[in-house]
Amino acid sequence: MFWLEFAVVMAAIFIGARLGGIGLGAMGGIGLAVLTFVFHLQPTAPPIDVMLMIAAVVTAAGVLQAAGGLDYLVGLAEKILRSNPDRITFLAPVVTYFFTLFAGTGHVAYSVLPVIAEVSRETGVRPERPMSIAVIASQQAITASPIAAATVALLGLLGGSAAKFGFNVELIDILKVCIPSTLAGVLIAAFVSNKLGKDLDKDPEYQQRLKDGLVAAPHGAGGSEERTSLENTPATAKVAVALFLLGAILVVLFGSFPQMRPEWSVGNDIRISQILVKSENEAKDALVQLKSGGTFSAVARQCSIDATAANGGDLGWQSKGKLLPEIEKACAKLKKTGDLTEVIKTPFGYHIVKFDDKRPSTNKEKMGMPHVIEIVMLTIAALMLLICRVKVAKVAEGSVFIAGVQAVIAIFGIAWMGDTFFQGNMDLLSGSIKSLVTQAPWLFAFALFALSVLLYSQAATVRALMPLGISLGIPAPFLIAMFPAVNGYFFIPNYPTVVAAINFDRTGTTGIGKYVLNHSFMIPGLVATFSSIGIGFLLVKFLF
């Protein structure tokens, strides 16, 4: 059954990836339907928190684009690149990296790719070198951006699930590993990219295009005017950029300093007493005595093998999450003083629990980062709409908003299907994989990379596969170190930014090879991804 279910999941992913956009989410829905109605797997909860966080971030980014903020940022990038044309192979990826780090989406790279192609051609630098690594950098930065959908998804998973491994993940824990590791990986890959191919004046294809008049001869670094005039940028665009930057800073601050977040008393502490015996028959006999009028304290002193027997079984005040799950579930049904549970079986024996009292919880619960991100980014979007007087209809028509909504739908279907498949087969997967990844956790990075190649979405890959890593007991710091492995969708050269880079390079040096996989982005992508992972593992050894 496992392999049939696996085939359904992979078929849904493959067809969905071919359809693109919301097709990925829709195919996830079909896969989920087959898993539940045909194979009778119990569906897990849909990834609501992740979807809402992404929706909030995308709303703010869409308003930024509609206000002209992205155009202003493109102008700044163009000025930097034209001022240092000889270093473009190193500056171009740094620009696209920080664009994505700031905006939370790699699609902002579209705006600067034509500039990179033109400046490199005019200065005699082979465009393939800066173009390929610039695209890879825009993808790597997704796993370092505090407001990227993938980072938000990872935080949502590790922030709650990692506690059982003795590690409570905050946003700063992800950023302090992934920002330096991915940036270092990008710079290493830029050094490698700078050696790719022949110099432009010796490249036969480019020389033939010049001869055939398919491309104009370069005019030199100063022969072309800047595409964007920063002097003519409206003040509202600059205000929008400042507000969006404020939102990103607030998210980082709230994530880095949990004490800044509001906290509340949640639920109630309960005071309970218990009787613990070795056998079910003994427990049933004790329950009969209690229901026949025997006092709980007397029966506990007579029958209980627990250390609290001398005190009449009094366990004192208990907070939510402190009791055994079986006991906590049974106690949730107790409403008034003196209420008794039925016999409860646990690894320690058989219990009967009496409800004594309740009070407001003394434990404080801080606002979670998912809610912080949602509130902050929606607030920033509202401020941009009001202050910059952005037309709401224009936001919904922007490429950033449309791409973000497609990501939400993709995650909705594909992550829900993935969760259901993994949870339904957890016993089998745990038995066959747990010992392997426990001994060599880095092997899990290959699974993340392979799935990202199919999904074309870092966030969807995180939501689909990271829960498996958590369930297998891989330590949270190791999962953070492996986070850049989800940047594998350059592998098959049909992702939009990859295709755009090929089309923008009129010299023909950036392209897809004869064997498809020998394309311009393969070497920079592999070097950047696996360098980032390796550096990440080194960092977690010192930081955690």
Automatic annotation (TrEMBL):
<keyword id="KW-0472">Membrane</keyword>
<feature type="transmembrane region" description="Helical">
    <location>
        <begin position="239"/>
        <end position="257"/>
    </location>
</feature>
<keyword id="KW-0813">Transport</keyword>
<dbReference type="InterPro" id="IPR000297">
    <property type="entry name" value="PPIase_PpiC"/>
</dbReference>
<keyword id="KW-0812">Transmembrane</keyword>
<dbReference type="GO" id="GO:0003755">
    <property type="term" value="F:peptidyl-prolyl cis-trans isomerase activity"/>
</dbReference>
<dbReference type="Pfam" id="PF03605">
    <property type="entry name" value="DcuA_DcuB"/>
</dbReference>
<dbReference type="InterPro" id="IPR046357">
    <property type="entry name" value="PPIase_dom_sf"/>
</dbReference>
<feature type="transmembrane region" description="Helical">
    <location>
        <begin position="521"/>
        <end position="540"/>
    </location>
</feature>
<comment type="similarity">
    <text>Belongs to the DcuA/DcuB transporter (TC 2.A.13.1) family.</text>
</comment>
<keyword id="KW-0413">Isomerase</keyword>
<feature type="transmembrane region" description="Helical">
    <location>
        <begin position="368"/>
        <end position="388"/>
    </location>
</feature>
<feature type="transmembrane region" description="Helical">
    <location>
        <begin position="6"/>
        <end position="38"/>
    </location>
</feature>
<feature type="transmembrane region" description="Helical">
    <location>
        <begin position="400"/>
        <end position="418"/>
    </location>
</feature>
<feature type="transmembrane region" description="Helical">
    <location>
        <begin position="438"/>
        <end position="456"/>
    </location>
</feature>
<dbReference type="InterPro" id="IPR004668">
    <property type="entry name" value="Anaer_Dcu_memb_transpt"/>
</dbReference>
<dbReference type="GO" id="GO:0005886">
    <property type="term" value="C:plasma membrane"/>
</dbReference>
<feature type="transmembrane region" description="Helical">
    <location>
        <begin position="171"/>
        <end position="192"/>
    </location>
</feature>
<feature type="transmembrane region" description="Helical">
    <location>
        <begin position="50"/>
        <end position="70"/>
    </location>
</feature>
<keyword id="KW-0997">Cell inner membrane</keyword>
<keyword id="KW-1003">Cell membrane</keyword>
<dbReference type="GO" id="GO:0015556">
    <property type="term" value="F:C4-dicarboxylate transmembrane transporter activity"/>
</dbReference>
<dbReference type="InterPro" id="IPR023058">
    <property type="entry name" value="PPIase_PpiC_CS"/>
</dbReference>
<keyword id="KW-1133">Transmembrane helix</keyword>
<feature type="transmembrane region" description="Helical">
    <location>
        <begin position="90"/>
        <end position="113"/>
    </location>
</feature>
<protein>
    <submittedName>
        <fullName>Anaerobic C4-dicarboxylate transporter</fullName>
    </submittedName>
</protein>
<feature type="transmembrane region" description="Helical">
    <location>
        <begin position="468"/>
        <end position="492"/>
    </location>
</feature>
<keyword id="KW-0697">Rotamase</keyword>
<feature type="domain" description="PpiC">
    <location>
        <begin position="267"/>
        <end position="357"/>
    </location>
</feature>
